[in-house]
Amino acid sequence: MGDSFNHLMDNLIAATWRIMDLPMYVLVIFFVVLYFILRWLIKKFLKGDQKTLKFILPIMGLFLMAFIVDHKISLMKQEIELVNEKYLNFQQAETLKLWDKEFDIEAISKEFGQELLADQRYVNEATKLFILKKEDPKAVIFLAITDLAHPGLEVVITPEHKEKYLTSRFAKENNCYLAINGEAGETPYPGGPLGQFTGNWITDGKAILLEDTELRPFMSFDKENVGRYFKAPIVDTVNTEEKYNTIWGRFDILLKGKVQADPRNRAYSRTIMGLDTNGRYLYTMVVDGKRPQYSLGLTKIEAAELLKLFGAHNVMSCDQGGSSCMYVKNHKGIINRPADSDGYERPVYSHFGLRMKN
Fold first, then answer.
1. Which residues contact residue 102 at a Cβ distance below 8 angstroms, ignoring those fewer than 6 apart?
2. Residue 341 is part of which domain span?
3. Is 181 a member of any domain?
4. Based on the domain organization, do 80 and 50 belong to the same domain?
């Protein structure tokens, strides 16, 4: 009973904050409709002092609207301050490797069909970070491209399936210079089950979960960090050397360079992982969303098209929404603006990270 009640309360709180994230005009319409529904209910079912109740309702409505406006203004200030602080605090690696893989942002923008404002930075010799912005609708995108052939690189995946915890904690405990969220399961609730969102999870050759189904793709890396992609229809629950480190996603969005259809096709917060043709270059992308004035997000099709232009060949979307976050060590923490109303990262069961050997 206690767990069920806590689960219900967590979902109600999450729903309340998601309602608060709706555009202002939607909230106004919502509360006007709610006001008239309450008036009708009072008139129909209450036999007491209806005049007093009808007087109290508008006052409560004014207080509620004042709270919403204050909340929206506060969020806008936080977003501006947070984004400015993150860009200013980013410390670029001092020693840069000249990659043999370069990117023409102007050409990519033209092919993508929208102008992309890009800030390119080296995190270290193995990883380059792109901070991309687009308009109409707005989207802020954090894309890290990593050369898996770098001799000092190590792939790190959560070593145990226990309680949910923050991606930033995972990154710090494992000395990762970059990390993204894995899977939170069916609900944001701390003890919520993985449920249908389960798959293959292997860390340093040790199988944590071997629960692949035809619904979930997964990505694996051997001891030399060569990446391999397994699309959703392939069911493979055998722990082999090529799956030395393995993490699963939710949906295929790019397969062998072909963008996959998505019937919903709505802009949203995203966590995306992909590989190039040879499994040498890894793409980890987080897209902020659910805030139209800052970043509404990308559709899965847009995300697939964009990564294809950067050279990805196979791509999967992972847990998304409030779970989506990216940690960059020399950025001093979470680089994006997670989609929950408080702007803080959400705990998840699994995590994916990169670190350099000591």
1. none
2. 97-356
3. yes
4. yes
- Supply the DSSP string of 93-112, one letter for each residue: -SS----S----HHHHHHHH
| pLDDT in 10s for each residue of the chain, 358 residues | 334 544 455 455 555 656 666 666 677 777 778 777 877 777 776 665 666 666 666 777 676 777 666 666 666 655 555 555 554 444 444 444 445 677 899 999 999 999 999 998 899 999 999 999 999 899 999 999 999 999 999 999 999 999 999 999 999 999 999 999 999 988 877 888 898 999 999 999 999 999 999 999 999 999 999 999 999 999 999 999 999 999 999 999 999 999 999 988 899 999 999 999 999 999 999 999 988 889 999 999 999 999 999 999 999 999 999 899 999 999 889 999 998 766 789 999 999 999 999 7
Task: Verify that 82 and 130 share a domain, yes or no.
Answer: no
Distance CA 301, CA 310 (A): 14
Q: What single letter denotes the amino acid at residue 26?
A: V
Name the residue type at position 289.
G
- Give how far Cα 60 sits from Cα of 51, 65, 288, 328, Å: 15, 9, 33, 44
Helix, strand or coil, per DSSP, at residue 50? helix
Spatial contact of 218 and 200, defined as CB atoms under 8 Å apart: yes
* Two structure tokens written together for 27: 């909230």
Task: Report the domain count for the chain.
Answer: 2
**Virtual CA dihedral for 207, 347, 196, 180, nearest 10 degrees?**
-60
Report d(CA 35, CA 283) in Å as an integer: 48
Q: What is the DSSP letter of 81?
A: H
DSSP letter (8 states) at residue 261: P
Residue 297 · residue 262 · CB < 8 Å: no
Chain centre to alpha carbon of residue 241: 29
**Residues 181 and 205 sit within 8 Å (Cβ to Cβ):** no
Q: How far is residue 114's CA from residue 191's CA, in Å, rounded to a whole number?
A: 41
